[in-house]
Amino acid sequence: MVKISRNIVTTQLQLFLLAASLLFIFKIFFGSSDSVYLRIILDLLIAASIFFLLIALIRFENSRTTAPLSLIMNIGILSAIMFFIITFSDYLMPNIFDNINLKLKNPGLVYDIVSVFYVLVFIGFVSYFLLTLRHFFFLNQGRNIRIYFNTMLVFFILASLSGNFFQAESVSFLSSTFFIVSVLLMVFNSIRISWIAFLSKKEKIYLLLLSFVITTLFIVNINNSSGDNIHSQMLNAFSPSLKQFNVIVMVYGSIYFLILFFTTLFHLPTAEAFDRKAQEVTSLQYFSKLITEVLDFNDLAETVTDIAQKLSGSKATWIIWKNGAKQNSLAARNIGFVESDKVTNQILERISFENLTSTRTFNLKEKISEGSTSNSLSVVSVSPIKTRGETQGILVAAKGSGQIFTQDDLNAMETFSDYASVAIENSRLLEESIEKERLEKELDVAREIQRKILPLQVPRYPNLQVASVFIPAFEVGGDYYDFFKISETKLGFVIADVSGKGISAAFIMAEVKGIFESLSKTIERPKEILIKANEILKEALDNKTFVSAAYGYFDLAEKKLVFSRAGHCPLFLLRGGDSKQIKPSGLGLGLSETDYFEKTLEEYSIDLKENDTIVLYTDGVTEAKNELLEDFGDKLFLEALQSNINLTAEELSNKIIKEITVFSSGHEQYDDITLVIFKWQQ
Amino acid sequence: MAEFSTSVRENGDISIINLKGFLDAHTAPTLENNFTQLINDSKFKIVVNFEDLAYISSAGLGVFMAYIESIRDNKGDIKLTNMSDKVFNIFDLLGFPLLYEIYKNEDEALKKFSGS
């Protein structure tokens, strides 16, 4: 695209140069002739030069975007140069021509060359002025504006030519008529200047000065061009039409810039308000984008205070965020945390989170000097940031003494804090769902660990039926059980429950497994094993985590069960029609020092009889809940065991689990369920 | 999740924490904050009233373990009162009666503090 437009520009420039060269040759051969036809040809050549240069400039102009202000600056510079050329030509040209007349044989030729160049320079000036004014004109939007502009140009040309060709008394009125119509069209085309509305106040002041200077320069230049000086003489001698056209374009320029000057002047009082509104619109657009883009809470808070500061024109902004029972300052902008805390304290003396429902403003009792600046903060506006319908934060904007929050400021802050609330709520919800996903992944890992830790199958012994059932809860509950083949006639077992849930409980389970696996290989007595396990775990666990456990072994040769209980659920012994809950004393592992643990720990021994059923479980069994939040409990558990006592261990465990499942069908399983059943059959 | 709340009262130099609802891994931080606050304020004589507590999980029990050492190091104690049978049973299984003084009602616990 750029390349193509460059090519077009080059073509137009070539045409301009061709026309200019023809002009040059024409002037040298025919000089200043009085023939009407030659004058017409000359004017046509001038018109062609201006036309092609103008087209080239327009094409070039369209290929890039230039700010109106820099174009105006260019005009200013050019009109200043023009002023100097016109002024100096008055002093320099006569000297130069005098020298030429003295030294050269053919002064007419040199004079022609100089005048052609001089004229070309002015063709350049005029084309550029016309181009820029056209550019400004087309900044206005409206119907048929092209027609208005072209009509005006036609009258420019008519006015220029008529002065040259209709000099007779009878038709001289035509020239002035065309001129007057041109001026009317200039005024008409200049009155609607809308583009300055979008400039900032600073730019408007700049524009005001610039347009004043340019108007003055144009008027001075018109005056100089129409007078009886060298410049005027040179142009007139070359072509009166060109001189007239030059003057008309300058008149257009001075009218445009005069109107621009007054329009800017009238816009100036509202410039600040307009600036503010423009800022608000951009900020709100920016912020609605933020709602969908910024997701990190801290980034969001920074952006909120940044925009709030611009929006309200405040010196400093920050957010007071409620964090449990405390409040802290977030994302302080243009103020230190020490100063912002001082102001925060004053604010919280006046208002509370609960009763702040809309934006308010008040003066600070005690002014806070902020940083190195001498101006101290004296007035604040506070807006609520709500999540879930509750005020969770306060957006504070502070201004220095002598400044006030206008109703517009407060309205803007009110709207803005609503936006901020939505954005913050969004980011919080997202954070929550990410956290939830992370937690679920973590729980997958925990369940996997637990699955690998628990025994794959139960051991087989000739006279002892062994059955176990384990049902994990969604949040891994930390249940652990295991069997240890101590010898051909001895079977060790452990059942344990780690306090807490999830991945941390799963890791502790793994540790507990390691401890019991190694201890059971070297130590036989349950009491000693638990004492050792307590010693290790007291060291390893933090002081709020503990493990309940029961460890024991069956001696098949001696027909004996020996076990100790460290804070775990009791053991059930079902013998004949009777049932017995066996609960020897013992503290949970990791709760107390070795001495005290040892002192309070008992060991219990049972001589086994035919069909003795021994049941171990974790609290997930007895604390399984129904929809009324009632526990399954010891009583139902025992009843279920007793009424199915004739089943094998395997069948019995399945039956019990079925009963628990039926009981708790209306309630989500909250804890792991572990059930281990031994049945002694000689 | 189940609801849990606490309230703290002063009785002379003794602080009484009332528990209400379900104390488990999710609600334990509320009670932890109470203990931290009391320890920061150098209030080491603490009675915990379980009258309105419906349920306590192992993680809930852990809260008491977490602070008992520092409180006893400062010549204070945590005494537990007004437990329902169900809650007492959970404490009992783990052997807590061996580690903590558990009383039927607040008065007994308060007397015990002023007596010692």
Task: Describe the protein in words.
The complex is a heterodimer of chains A (682) and B (116). With 682 residues, chain A is α+β, with helices and mostly antiparallel strands. Helices cover 59% and strands 17% of the residues of chain A. Chain A has 18 helices and 15 strands. Chain A starts with a helix and ends with a strand. With 116 residues, chain B is an alpha/beta fold. Chain B has a five-stranded mixed sheet, with helices on both faces. In chain B, helix 1 runs parallel beside helix 2. At the A-B interface, loops of A face helix 2 and helix 3 of B.
Brief sketch in words of this structure:
The complex is a heterodimer of chains A (682) and B (116). Chain A is built from 18 helices and 15 strands. Chain A has 682 residues and is an alpha+beta fold.
> What are the segments of chain A in which pLDDT stays under 50 over at least 5 consecutive residues?
none
**Poorly predicted ranges of chain B:** none
Strand line-up in the sheet with most strands of chain B: 1-2-3-4-5
The percent of residues in helical segments of chain A reads 55-70%
Rounded mean pLDDT of chain B is: 89
Number of helices of chain B: 4
What is the number of E strands of chain B?
5
Oligomer: heterodimer
Shape of chain A: rod-shaped
Number of helices of chain A: 18
Give Rg of chain A in angstroms. Answer: 49 Å
Straight-line N-to-C gap of chain A: 100 Å
Strand content of chain A: 15-25%
